[in-house]
Each structure stands twice: as structure tokens, then as C-alpha cells.
What we know:
This protein has 277 residues and is an alpha/beta fold. The protein has helices spanning 64-70, 101-107, 123-133, 141-151, 155-158, 171-184, 201-214, 227-233, 256-261, 266-272; strands spanning 26-35, 38-48, 53-57, 81-89, 92-93, 108-111, 189-193, 219-223, 236-241, 249-255. The strands form two sheets. It has a six-stranded mixed β-sheet, with helices on both faces. Strands 2-1-4-5 form a four-stranded antiparallel β-sheet, with helices on one face. Strand 7 (189-193), helix 7 and strand 8 (219-223) form a beta-alpha-beta unit. It starts with 25 loop residues before the first strand and ends in a 5-residue tail after the last helix.
Amino acid sequence: MTTTELVGTATPTLHPTQTTGTAAGLDAVGISAWFGDHKVLEDVSLQMLPRQVTALIGPSGCGKSTFIRILNRMHELVSGASLSGEVLLDGVDIYGAEQRPIETRRRIGMVFQKPNPFPAMSIYDNVLSGLRLSGARIQDAARTVEESLTRAGLWREVRTRLADPGGSLSGGQQQRLCIARALAVKPQVVLMDEPCSALDPTSTHRIEETMSEIVQDVTIVIVTHNMQQAQRVSDRCAFFMVEEGSPGGIVEVGATSKIFSDPEDARTADYVHGRFG
């Protein structure tokens, strides 16, 4: 299969000074994706509203992680990967010809399943690393570090040990450090790919509290296999599913309360009530 290139025409560029740090709407329109000749997603459209948490739920292998990586242009980093469709950040296609991937990833941050701080780098420098890698101008580094760690719910625990290596923190603290690093660049959207799957209940609770606080300023999209977590943290849910021999796609989208109490599709009801997956 020939790699599909998404080319925008006369679309505005997302400049570094444009709406930085302001929650933005994110819309996926007709997204299909391939790894080589293998089609993994077909015609996925999803509206992710500003200042809300959208949870992507569904069994393993249905394309949720591929989809969330498409939302900030990480899919294209995989050799042989291709896609079609549009991803609109406040109405601007992030795959448009004028858009720079590094700037897109600054505006649409990512927190991964496994905490990935730079282990030998200090806590202080970990927070600033995203800004430095993006070439952003840091006007008040100390204030940026404190504000980012505070928003990530970690400041009180590490304020006296900012020079310690990031790898010296516990798993839950490392994940919150990664959230602080993502927040330091003042993104409009934060993507989270199973951020609590390897954490204990206490750490999970703290990260969920952080999500409830930062959603006032950003749009959050989270992949989770924890149905209780989806109910606790999200405003809307998108249920993904894959049939044998077919690519993954969305079965149903709706308010979280409706998805769990009165879904329209029987497959959704079966999944959220634990009858498969």
C-alpha cells in the first residue's frame, strides 16, 4: 500500500504564540490507519471537546493506542505506518502542509503507559526538558518548575529534592513528573495512554485528582482498560472494537453516564459490564 500523505491547502500555521496553554477542541475526521498493508483502523471520527476528559475504551488490539498516537503525529514515526483523514486542532489540520510535527507535539502532549522521565537528569531539569527540546524560550525556569509540579500534584513531595535524579522517584511520582513535563510546555491537549496501568491504587488516585484539576485548562484524552476509572474521570467515552479479520473502529460514543447505564449498542453494554474483553 502506498503511504497516504495528508496535504492541507492554505491552512494557517500553528505559531508558538498562538493560543498556547488554552484548551482546544480536537476533532478526528474519517481516520483510517495502516501498518504496511495491514489496516488497523477504519473511518474513525471523534469529537474531543475542550476542557473535558474523553476516555477511549475497548478490548486490547482494537486500535485505541494507534488512534491516540495519530492525534499528535506519533503514528508517522513508525516505519511503514500510514493514515488518511484529518485531525483538527481548533479547526486546523495538524497534518496540513504548513504544520510542523514538533510544534504539534508541543500543543498536543503525550503521557505514556510506562513513566519515562530521564532517569539520570534531575527532577528540576526533567520538568524543563520538553521546553528545551522544543527550543522554547524559558523566561523564569524556577517558577515554571514549581507551577508544573504543583499542577501535577508533586510539588510538596519533591520541593526539597529538585536536584535528585528523576529515576529516584517512585513509579507513581515518576508518572506525575512526566505529567509535569508535559504541562510545562503549556499544551492545549494532553493525551494519556493507560497512564495508571502499572501503578498502585494510591498513585492512581493522585493522578486522577491531577486530571480533574488540569482539565480546567486543557483537553484530556485517555486510553484506559479500567472501567471504574473511565467512569470516575471522563465526561465522554468512545467504545472501540475490532471484529476478526477487520480493522478497529468506534462502535459508540456518548456521555460517560449513558455509555455505562444505557448504551445504544449491545456490544457496548457487554463490554462495560465485563462480559468480554
